[in-house]
Design brief:
The chain has 147 residues and is mainly α. The chain has 4 helices and no strands. The model has no long low-confidence stretch (mean pLDDT 92). Residues 14, 16-17, 19-20, 41, 43-44, 46 line the site of zinc ion.
Length: 147
């Protein structure tokens, strides 16, 4: 079975083998539980945090996705319900869009991490033979609070 890049990233799979799950639990509104990651991929052993503070930049990713989704939902709203300066349809869209974004938030937070790691860890078709890159030096626990 070969998962493509998009299916792997959208499904929050390990980017190296595209098999193992990055997160321990199914998507849940319990945000703390939702974000618990496997320390390493349960299938190929790829570390999910490849350096200290690795996921720091993901807030930019989720922000960009939030903006993108809002533009898409506005476009769909304009094409189906329509927009007019004579009534409140634009404000109804704002409310509906806010609800949509809140509902999608647990998944968006995970997706931004999944995308993030997929930009740093390359797919390895021979992951069964090769060892994952050793990141223990970069993950030196003594340095964990020094960045
Ligand atoms: Zn893996």
């Amino acid at each position: 079975m070969n998962r493509g890049y998009a299916a792997s990233a959208l499904g929050c799979r390990c980017p190296r083998c595209r098999e193992g799950k990055l997160f321990q639990n199914p998507v849940t509104i319990n945000l703390k539980k939702n974000m618990v990651m496997n320390k390493e991929c349960p299938v190929c052993g790829q570390a999910t945090e490849i350096e200290v503070g690795f996921y720091y930049g993901t807030s930019y990713v989720s922000y960009a996705m939030t903006v993108g989704l809002s533009l898409i939902s506005l476009a769909i709203w304009a094409l189906t319900i329509g927009l007019s300066v004579d009534d409140n349809r634009f404000f109804y869209w704002m409310g509906a869009n806010a609800v949509l974004l809140i509902v999608l938030q647990p998944w968006l937070m995970r997706l931004s991490r999944s995308l993030w790691i997929s930009w740093f860890v390359k797919y390895d078709a021979d992951w069964r033979q090769n060892q994952p890159v050793d990141v223990s030096e970069r993950m030196n626990p003594d340095q964990a609070n020094n960045w």
